[in-house]
């Protein structure tokens, strides 16, 4: 396995590239940010613009992947997709015509993200979920409007009084509960799970924007068994493969399934270990192996780890040369123009207690925000000073 090349494409591919490196692969990366640590981790990389609402454009993405494959020291073993493709199964199908997919195919992604198919399946399986509909409710109070295949919480909004007709939208009744996500490593042969709690970093117009996650989350035994039972049933019904995630709301001990993300997500930063066991298991699942056996033998995640996103909420920012703390990932290159509200970086923390690492992450978010904006302002003032 050591030294094999693997293609990776995602909105942000740093976490996947890091896990692949730790696992002994040479990652060939396409993403939208081209952050300094992503470029350093990649054997070769391409940076392509993409809109969160619509994802990548087929022609430049295919060209970028083709050029990486042509320049690789050995033929890539396949293509791993991260966030950015759930909204476009047709693009996934095009990619599969050229590259061997490591993970879920277009048909599986379509079944998992199409609300008509997915929630009908949950009803058949007897799995609780919030009331969901494709047409707008007559009374929008207490309803959310979501975009099919959206990610990062940016696609979720309170339902407006008169939403414009849009086949890419669906509507879900808002219910109370704590956000609990199960990272699943699933295949035809086995399944293994790890739980995290998640939180939002809300803005007035983006009230459900993803903030971060912390794990491993201790869960009451009966609830944990029920969450795993429901996740296994969905995984089997959808024929899911590799790293996936199941997002639940839990209230008074009762769980409702909100969605399934049929690809590696943000909790890869929370649960991966020093040898990239999750990436190895993802590949093993796609090869028809037994990933749970690999995890039980080799997986050594930290007792507690948290990862949180820093956004440019103090206004647009042009990044400058800084000495990054070792707890910062997704480091933008000097001169990068970050628009207001856009992701700036990721902070992580490890320790012996989930509450502690979450608190440390919150502290580090404030420290990093102050460092980046104060450094920019200081350099701007120095450049503008009279000579």
Q: What this model shows, in words?
A:
The chain has 3 domains: 98 residues, Rossmann fold; 189 residues, D-amino Acid Aminotransferase, Chain A, domain 1, CATH 3.30.470.20; 81 residues. 33% of the residues lie in helices and 26% in strands. An 8-stranded antiparallel beta sheet has the order 13-12-9-10-11-14-18-16. The longest helix has 31 residues. The model has no long low-confidence stretch (mean pLDDT 93).
Keywords:
single chain, 387 residues, alpha+beta, Rossmann fold, D-amino Acid Aminotransferase, Chain A, domain 1, 3 domains, eight-stranded antiparallel beta sheet, 18 strands
Question: In a nutshell, what does this entry contain?
Answer:
The chain is built from eleven helices and 18 strands. With 387 residues, the protein is of the alpha+beta class.
Number of strands: 18
The class by helix and strand makeup works out as alpha+beta
What's the total helix number? Answer: 11
Order of helices and strands: EHEHEHEHHHEEEEEEEHEEHHHEEEEEH
Strand order of the largest sheet: 13-12-9-10-11-14-18-16
At the fold tier of CATH, the topology name of the largest domain is: D-amino Acid Aminotransferase, Chain A, domain 1
The proportion of residues forming helix, as a percent range, comes to: 25-40%
Arithmetic mean of pLDDT: 93
Proportion of strand residues: 25-35%
Fourth CATH level, the homologous superfamily of the largest domain: ATP-grasp fold, B domain
Roughly how many Å apart are the termini?
A: 59 Å
Poorly predicted ranges (pLDDT <50, ≥5 residues)? Answer: none
Structural shape: globular
CATH architecture of the largest domain: 2-Layer Sandwich
Q: What is the name of the CATH class of the largest domain?
A: Alpha Beta
**Can you tell me the number of structural domains?**
3
Specify Rg, calculated over alpha carbons.
21 Å
Query: Biggest sheet: strands, sense, closure?
Result: 8 strands, antiparallel
């Amino acid at each position: 396995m050591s030294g094999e090349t693997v293609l990776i494409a995602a909105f942000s591919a740093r976490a996947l590239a890091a896990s692949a490196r730790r696992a002994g692969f040479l990652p060939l990366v396409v993403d939208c940010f081209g952050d300094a640590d992503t470029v350093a981790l990649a054997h070769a990389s391409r940076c392509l613009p993409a809109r969160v609402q619509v994802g990548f454009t087929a022609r430049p993405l295919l060209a970028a992947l083709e050029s990486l494959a042509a320049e690789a020291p050995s033929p890539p073993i396949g293509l791993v997709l991260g966030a950015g493709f759930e909204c476009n199964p047709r693009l996934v199908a095009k990619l599969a015509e050229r590259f061997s997919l490591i993970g879920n195919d277009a048909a599986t992604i379509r079944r998992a993200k199409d609300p008509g198919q997915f929630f009908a399946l949950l009803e058949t399986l007897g799995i609780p979920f919030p009331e969901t509909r494709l047409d707008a409710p007559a009374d929008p109070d207490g309803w959310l409007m979501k975009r099919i295949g959206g990610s990062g919480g940016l696609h979720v909004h309170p339902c407006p009084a008169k939403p414009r007709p849009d086949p890419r939208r669906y509507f879900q009744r808002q219910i109370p509960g704590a956000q609990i996500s199960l990272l699943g490593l699933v295949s035809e042969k086995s399944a293994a799970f790890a739980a995290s709690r998640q939180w939002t970093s809300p803005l007035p117009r983006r009230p459900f924007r993803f903030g971060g996650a912390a794990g491993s989350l201790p869960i009451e035994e009966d609830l944990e068994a029920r969450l795993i039972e429901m996740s296994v049933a969905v995984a089997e019904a959808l024929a899911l493969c590799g790293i996936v995630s199941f997002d639940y709301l839990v209230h008074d001990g009762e769980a409702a399934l909100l969605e399934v993300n049929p690809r590696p997500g943000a909790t890869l930063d929370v649960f991966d270990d020093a040898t990239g066991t999750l990436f190895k298991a993802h590949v093993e699942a796609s090869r028809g192996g037994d990933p749970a056996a690999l995890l039980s033998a080799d997986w050594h995640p930290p007792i507690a780890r948290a990862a949180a996103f820093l956004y440019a909420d103090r206004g647009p920012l042009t990044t400058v040369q800084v000495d990054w703390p070792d707890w910062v990932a997704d480091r933008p290159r000097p001169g990068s123009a970050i628009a207001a509200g856009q992701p700036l970086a990721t902070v992580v923390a490890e320790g012996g207690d989930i509450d502690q690492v979450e608190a440390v992450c919150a502290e580090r978010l404030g420290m990093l925000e102050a460092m980046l904006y104060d450094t920019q302002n200081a350099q701007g003032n120095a450049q503008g000073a009279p000579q």
